[in-house]
Write a sequence for this structure.
């Protein structure tokens, strides 16, 4: 008779133990700083401390075989872009190319007298993997950042400056381009 | 059967209590009737039954635990657990195997006022746990929210982090019921708080044998156990039960 109470309590303990073992969601929170993008800002060549928008800006990356990929989304104001960085093995230096096009509408219209201006930049960096959390796993940060603007005789990007050689977050621009 | 008759007897006694207490006010002669029961004192050894079952059904888990307690006084028991576990955690971004052994020691206090000769337990207690383990990062995929390029990079190079350890404290609540003579079944839950741990370089402890899952959110953990144990009686002590006063 008395034992039945014990068995009930035993069952209750089992139920409590069973439900408490349910794992909470292991989802990486969006606010977590994971693999950062490269942030580039455009400044005025005549007034080096002032941001300057790029008219009709469009940006593309390339795959490893140098075929152009889709447009990278840019948003107003067009004085700043964030670029995804390709990487493979940790510690293995990567060079990524991006085409940065100004006056894109001049290419798209039918007027042969007007042309857009496409400049290609080559960004070099080394991925380094850092542990974040159980939910997010590892992120990559990038070190040894450098940039080259490919000279094509008609560059609209006139100068460049690397502000941070290590890309750890997206809070500030890593590279400034002047035009 | 014996217990049923005890139950009936004690129920009858219980019914007499109001009457006797009432009658006590009239005549002040106190009766001091007591029943004497032999209480078994000894070492109780057991195994956790959940871990072997889980080892059998869950490919990502292998574990075994033996536990024991030694009755010091009427309500206080010295208690401890010794175990070994191997567990793999596989998420979209990490594949990790933790492997190691642990030891926990502490005290249990039996809150339950047993009836007559019964020796069941509803107890609370504390433990200090120590674990020595290793973690193997079998593979990982770098977390990248931007799908612009192809699939994110995955490393399949296994890395082992050895010589890890952790110390924690826990509060335990549970019960043990004597189902047949000297054989007990029990269940318990444990709330754990990490005190110290050695963290691997550029990584973290995701599972600590004995402590269980390590949450991102903090130092606390949870665990449970189901066990079957056998009491090796060493000596007996009298337990006096006052029938009425």
């Amino acid at each position: 008779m008395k034992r039945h109470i014990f068995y009930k309590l035993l069952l209750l303990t089992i139920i409590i133990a069973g439900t408490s073992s349910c794992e909470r969601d292991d989802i990486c929170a969006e606010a977590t700083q994971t693999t950062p993008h490269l942030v580039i800002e455009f400044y005025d060549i005549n007034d080096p401390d002032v941001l300057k928008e790029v008219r009709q800006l469009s940006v593309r990356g390339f795959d490893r075989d140098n075929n152009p990929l889709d447009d990278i989304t840019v948003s107003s104001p067009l004085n700043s872009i964030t670029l995804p960085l390709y990487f493979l093995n940790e510690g293995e230096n990567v060079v990524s190319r991006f085409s940065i096009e100004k006056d894109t509408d001049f290419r798209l219209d039918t007027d042969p007298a007007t042309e857009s201006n496409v400049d290609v930049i080559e960004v070099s960096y080394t991925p380094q993997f850092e542990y974040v959390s159980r939910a997010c796993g590892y992120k990559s940060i990038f070190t040894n950042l450098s940039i080259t603007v490919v000279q094509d005789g008609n560059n609209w990007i006139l100068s460049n400056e690397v502000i941070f050689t290590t890309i750890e977050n997206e809070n500030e621009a890593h590279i400034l381009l002047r035009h | 059967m014996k217990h049923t008759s005890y139950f009936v007897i004690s129920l009858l006694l219980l019914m007499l209590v109001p009457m006797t207490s009432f009658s006590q006010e009239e005549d002040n002669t106190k009766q001091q009737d007591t029943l004497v029961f032999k209480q078994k004192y000894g070492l109780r050894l057991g195994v956790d039954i959940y871990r072997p079952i889980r080892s059998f059904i869950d490919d990502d888990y292998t574990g075994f635990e033996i536990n024991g307690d030694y009755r010091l006084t009427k309500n206080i028991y010295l208690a401890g657990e010794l175990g070994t576990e191997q567990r793999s955690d596989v998420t979209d971004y990490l594949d990790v195997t933790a492997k190691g052994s642990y030891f926990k020691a502490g005290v249990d206090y039996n809150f339950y006022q047993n009836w007559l000769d019964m020796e069941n337990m509803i107890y609370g207690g504390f433990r200090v746990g120590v674990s020595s383990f290793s973690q193997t990062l079998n593979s990982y995929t770098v977390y990248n929210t931007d799908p612009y390029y192809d699939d994110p990079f995955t490393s399949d190079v296994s890395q082992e982090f050895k010589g890890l350890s952790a110390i924690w404290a826990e509060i335990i609540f549970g019960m043990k019921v004597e189902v047949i003579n000297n054989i007990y079944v029990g269940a318990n839950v444990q709330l754990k708080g990490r005190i110290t741990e050695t963290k691997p370089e550029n990584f973290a402890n995701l599972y600590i044998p004995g402590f269980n899952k390590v949450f991102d959110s903090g130092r606390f953990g949870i665990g449970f156990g189901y066990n079957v144990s056998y009491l090796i009686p060493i000596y007996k002590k009298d337990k006096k039960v006052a029938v009425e006063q």
